[in-house]
User: What shape does this take?
Amino acid sequence: MQPSTIEQKNKERGHHLSNTAHCRFCNEELSDVFVDLGMSPLSNSYLKASELDQAEQFYPLTAMVCPSCFLVQLREYESPSDIFSDYAYFSSYSDSWLEHARQYVEMVTERFKISKDSLVVELASNDGYLLKNFLANGVPILGIEPAENVAQAAIEKGIPTLVEFFGRELAEKLASENKRADLIIGNNVLAHVPDINSFVGGIKTLLKPEGVATLEFPHLLNLIEENQFDTIYHEHFSYISFLAVSAIFDSHGMNIFDVDEIPTHGGSLRIYASHKKSSHKEQDSTSALIDKELAAGLDQMSTYYTFSEGVQQVKRDLLEKLIEIKNEGKTIAGYGAAAKGNTLLNYCGIRTDMVDYVVDRNPNKAGKFLPGTHIPVKDVSTIKEDKPDYLFILPWNLKKEIIAQNSFIREWGGKFIIPIPQVQIID
Assistant: This one.
């Protein structure tokens, strides 16, 4: 089928929107729909019991794709200050993520000779889960974290933390105070910023002439190939390919000289960026990844138009399996009150008629209710007390860790449900 025919077919299917929006990077007009997940609340807006009978705000969860730079993105329905000023996600509650951070610090310290004479700045530093490793090595550090409740946890660990959003303005202020960085870290934050040009421009301003910035973010190619639609939620403004991120950094006078494909969050990229005039040499990994994305069609709009079909199939298969289990009189408990889980549950219309409750290791979530679905969140100890027949793993990217931690459910014949990339039952 020719691209023009595909575009016409997708117009007929509603893959185009008429109301005008513009790309947050290149300002191209947006009208092409990547996937429409209906209406959804903010995925981290957990509810107290007293809020269950109050009106709840839902927003369109429609991802668009830019026909010029191929950046997949959501419109900004809520400001970052509303979303992130009081945040429910604490990185330290995932053992595998803590180990990932430790290994990263070990690697980057050796590769770029990070020492007591360096300054390491982390953007969206959360509760200090990563910077504490540099602190233990005596390296000067600075965390920048907009969520005050999360930043306070880092400060209590002795990690200097600014409670602010990062962008050009803050970068210029820090640079004027002689606080330019040898290493800037941004793990799973690039997707969270609506003004991506101010953010990347700020990195350029804050970075020393020979400094390095490393950023990690879920890879759009994995999202497409493995039906990872549940990673789409309002807190994630952008969904990024290497083609798109290369263009963004290039436009701000920076060069991505190396890239790693890493397994976190269902498949992510770790990019290494520097000033174009720095001495860092470009590695073969960058051209190899561009070739890989071109081979997968990430420069062709037809690739983006077909994503919805796989998403709808996952929804049908998951509902069919859950209905089958419930018709057998079995019980299902969810594991992990994760943001991605809230996208999945709301899009599929799964509520307490399917999932009795969800457990989570984070005490800040226990006792609350999931947004939209109002499924109660309980302490992980509830699993051993209730002995559910099935444990539905919502943060499927941590399935190995979660299955290992809950292997005891085999004592009563319990099984695990994995929803993505396709429904899977694990004994």
About this structure: DSSP finds 15 helices and 18 strands in the chain. The longest strand covers residues 29-40.
